[in-house]
Amino acid sequence: MSPEFERRLSHLLDRLEPMLPPTAVEVDWTRDVAALWTRHPLGGRLTPIAPRDALTLEDLLGIARQKRELLANTRAFLAGKPANHALLWGARGTGKSSLVRALLNTLGSEGLRLIQIDRHDLPALPALVAELAQQPHRFIVYCDDLSFEGSDDAYKALKSVLDGTLTGPPENVLLYATSNRRHLLPEHMSDNHDTHIVDGELHHGDAVEEKISLSDRFGLWLAFHPFNQDAYLETCQHWVEWRLGVGSFDDAARAEALRYATQRGVRSGRAAWQFANLWAGQKTLEA
Length: 287
What we know:
By secondary structure, the chain is of the alpha/beta class. Helix content is 40%, strand content 16%. The protein has 9 helices and 9 strands. The strands form 2 sheets. The chain has a 7-stranded mixed beta sheet, covered by helices on one side. A hairpin with a 2-residue loop joins strand 1 and strand 2 (43-48). Helix 7 packs across helix 9 (269-286) and helix 8 (251-264) packs across helix 9 (269-286). It is globular and about 80 Å long. The termini are far apart.
């Protein structure tokens, strides 16, 4: 091998180095309960991650029905019984993502395994699901804050995995997603131009049908709505007294909590948690 060839080969390898994936950390599903799908120029891989926190289902107030239904669906799945893909949609900060995290903390010891995939990586979803089909474990593939823009066709891979192929997803995989949009795709007034009435029945145009068909593939819809004042204050009290342990939720704390929600223009579980942190920090400094 000539020195010139060696030099050029070395130069080529140096240029290829940034494109190679980092040294892989293998996922051990007998030990790891969660993983993140990360992409690189040559494909993608699973990276094990620890649960973000110790959040429990009991910490989530104001969403009793949603907790009950998602827990029942997931337990049926873990038992090998029929279960549905789930779409958690609704107002921001009302507990959609937190419910999935709390579910993993509750059911991880019972065999639940969770894989999070970013919306932009959904074209790799069919390959990921095919890989998981070879595993003896049961997986929730989870996409947080899922929505698509008009020119984004990544949703086609999601549709295919949900209910669009001859085989469908393997029996050991379910898809859970959270979104602020019920139909996941943007909806425009112009979409209704092709809507018409035939024999007294309303028929939507192709644009509307295409957008509805994606969310229809999720068999379980769970709606999350803004908190009323009582639910918001109850959640503030839970975090201040029971989780952060910074004294009683007295009249002063209640008044500050209401002022905080008014300033933010929202009453939600997230706002309650953020207020509790603010209140706990102030009380700790005063002590």
